Amino acid sequence: MTTRRCLVTGAGRGIGAAVARQLSADGHRVALTARSRDELAAVAARLPGESLVLPADVLDPAAVEAVFAGVEDAWGPVEVLVLNAGAGVSAPLARTTDADWQRMLDLNLTAPFRMLRRAVPAMVEAGWGRVVAVASIAAKRGEPYIAAYTASKHGLLGLVRSAAAELAGTGVTVNAVCPGYVDTPMTDTSVASISAKTGRTPEQAREALARRQPIGRLVTVEEVADAVLLCVANAAVTGQGLNVDGGAVQG
Description:
The protein is α/β, with parallel strands linked by helices. Helices cover 49% and strands 14% of the residues.
């Protein structure tokens, strides 16, 4: 198997950390970026293979450039880019502020666009590249109280599809994975919000989220990482939004 140079955003915990572990276990070099150096260092310490720790705020265009330059200086151009950094916000539509709206677009759509734009030229020149964005089932359906998040994830899936169509035939594939509710710190935040607003216990709130998926439980981070690695391994898969949601959305 060829060892690839990988860059994972949002790699300090949750899905990003799981993706980093699986890429490393498969023999790849993995560069990790997120805002917290301590979290990244903890993840890197558990990886079996070579890694780089590159703390950065992906909202800063200069930081994006610095991260890519760090990988290139150490190893060469990025060959596998996993766009996992993101966040959510929940509010009724009428109480969704301009700041909420802009933050979701900046973090979930504009930052991935900038990173994709930066990665593509070297991938095309090499005739091989893989880009995988972690979207959400919110990229495929609308749900109440998450209008800004849903709009940003719909946009991310549109970006993936357009880029895949443009790059078809170059050796570069672009895909998204679309998880449902995953057992991550982000879901912990959702549980706390539901509990505060409804009076349910955290256990009841977590169970309510689990029941929204036909399999009756939260998706694991390893299951999402498996889907990411499928997109990395299979050259015939491009322009797709692969659902990892326990059957909640079919199509």
